[in-house]
Amino acid sequence: MPTLITETFYFQKLSIDFGKEMQDLIDYYKPIIETIEPNCTFTTLAVFPDKDFYPRTFKGVPVCSVCAIISTPMSETQIHSDSSMTNPETGVNNSLALQIPIEGTEGTDTIFWSSFDESPTTMLTYKTSPSMYNQRCWQKENSFYYLPKRYTCTEVGRCTIDSPYLINVGEYHSVRNIKNTRRVTLSVRFIEDPWHWLG
Length: 199
What we know:
The chain has three helices and 16 strands. By secondary structure, it is mostly beta strands. It has a single domain, classed as Jelly Rolls (Sandwich), CATH 2.60.120.10. Strands 1, 2, 3, 4, 9, 14 and 16 form a seven-stranded antiparallel beta sheet that branches. A four-stranded antiparallel beta sheet has the order 5-15-10-13, with no helix packed on it. A three-stranded antiparallel beta sheet has the order 6-12-11.
């Protein structure tokens, strides 16, 4: 099972059978993904507590956001880490994301990095990917990326999201797509990190 085992958790391929719950999630968001504007690579499609937020829970774990990650053909995203989602009841920062393949993930890489950059650039989500969805969800929220200087980064591992993975988006990562077709995944964040899924 593809797993990067270090003192820091980076990623693990999941052996859980998500069954109909997974397919329902994919079927719900696939048509919405097709409405995203061109060149919007990271798009928050839903964020709790929107009144129409779906799904409220996934495999029994409360969900806080669902995002689409779209990598254009022949591209590599900037190395970055995502801001944490804070549990409003406990104050604990959560950084795990369930990554679900939607389209064209074969032969692409999610690459994880370490960095000695002590002052990475901070960039607001809705400014780096100004889709209508991000404008709606994040203009009043503190969702952002940390962007380290490239020369400070060293690769520590990589995986291909060809099935459900749990990854740590609080660690520096990038997506490499050297194919002539786009790559699409869903990224589901949680109010409380589902560490128990790692088994």
